Amino acid sequence: MGFDYLLFFIIPNLAGGLYILLAALGLSSGRVRHSARPVDNYLVVVVTVGNERVLPALRETVAQLERLGLRYVVVSSRPLPLGNVLVVPREADGTKYRAIKWFVENYARADMWYIFLDDDSYPLDSGFLRDIAYYGGRGYVAGNGIIVPRPGRSALAYALDWVRYFHDLTLYRFALEVLRRPIFGMHGELLIVRGDVLKEVWPAMGDTVAEDFRFAMELAKRGYKTFQTATPVSIKSPNSLADFVRQRARWAAAVAEAFRYRNPYYLVLILVVPAVLWLGALGGSSYGYLGTPQAVAAMYLAVYTYGSIKARRYIIDVFVASLLELVGLAVGIVRKAASFYIIDKR
């Protein structure tokens, strides 16, 4: 057995096989609607910077929450012409982490459940209240929804965002539903947390621009159980490819957090697996065989094809634009984000 055979065939196929196995286990775990009575001790918390770039999306979010009859409060860096608004004092503001910390320290109660949303995200139904009752009665303390993108002004960014939906149905579901541990992180959109755990963990985390990932790492470190609700959460795709890249660049902060928490699972998934799959793809073209790296590539090609159909784009330009996701992550790793870039949500 030559070294090139090991490098280009054995290792990539093992990595590709593991990736497919985890995705299949997540997808096959399914999600069911639980018949438990909805909890009443809850509050939806929408966190926003409150400037003119986010107001249109924020109004859309508030309107949806009111249509669903959900109790909510808006935690904002600025006063807003809306009801149910808490304005974060300037000395307590600066990042999303700090704004939520201020809310937790001043308003959160141990006997409540809190559902956090970004200003451009909203649940498509209220079924998560039943899931909270079901899982909460079994000792689970935190959960996440299933991200479903909706169009912004960039059709390409919208097409690319369907990868997030695929990841939620596979890898994130595997972590949250099969392992019951958020080893790959959690989304800030429809982040469900029991009040006593929120009060225990959030103020102790320390400031970060990857607060949702750090929170997930703290939950995993402390052995708390998590779940994935069947409720889809609609998120608005970036209005431009430039904002798309900036958004992904900030997400690269999760890589630094994974090193901080010595999380080998996330690091292998985000750094090692893509590298060996690329080696496998190169090996396949050189040696004329098909293997699990090619199967993974076909899987993502199917996702990008689906996104292109939803966005009414040609699959070729969507597939080429998919490289921007890698560019954004690379930029974020090289240039560590120290603050949020507020993308245009008008």
Structure description:
This is Glycosyltransferase, probably involved in cell wall biogenesis. Keywords: Membrane, Transmembrane, Transmembrane helix. The protein has an eight-stranded mixed beta sheet. With 346 residues, it is an alpha/beta fold. The protein is globular. It has two domains: 3-26 and 261-334, no CATH class; 30-239, Spore Coat Polysaccharide Biosynthesis Protein SpsA, Chain A. The longest helix has 27 residues, at 3-29. The chain has helices spanning 3-29, 55-67, 96-107, 128-136, 155-179, 195-205, 211-221, 241-251, 253-260, 264-287, 292-311, 315-321, 323-334; strands at residues 42-48, 72-76, 85-87, 113-118, 121-123, 142-150, 191-194, 226-236.
Properties at a glance:
8-stranded mixed beta sheet; 346 residues; Spore Coat Polysaccharide Biosynthesis Protein SpsA, Chain A; 14% strand; 2 domains; globular; alpha/beta
User: Can you count the helices?
Assistant: 13
Q: Within the CATH hierarchy, at the fold level, what is the topology of the largest domain?
A: Spore Coat Polysaccharide Biosynthesis Protein SpsA, Chain A
| Uncertain spans | none
H and E order:
HEHEEHEEHEHEHHEHHHHHH
Report the CATH architecture of the largest domain: Alpha-Beta Complex
Structural class: alpha/beta
Query: What is the top-level CATH class of the largest domain?
Result: Alpha Beta
Taken from the alpha-carbon principal axes, the silhouette is globular
Compute the average pLDDT. 88
- Main sheet, how many strands, which sense, barrel? 8 strands, mixed
Percent strand equals: 5-15%
The name of the CATH superfamily of the largest domain reads Spore Coat Polysaccharide Biosynthesis Protein SpsA, Chain A
DSSP strand tally: 8
**Helical coverage, percent range:** 40-55%
Rg measurement, Å: 20 Å
Strand order of the largest sheet: 3-2-1-4-7-6-8-5
Task: Write down the domain tally.
Answer: 2
Q: Report how far apart the termini are.
A: 58 Å
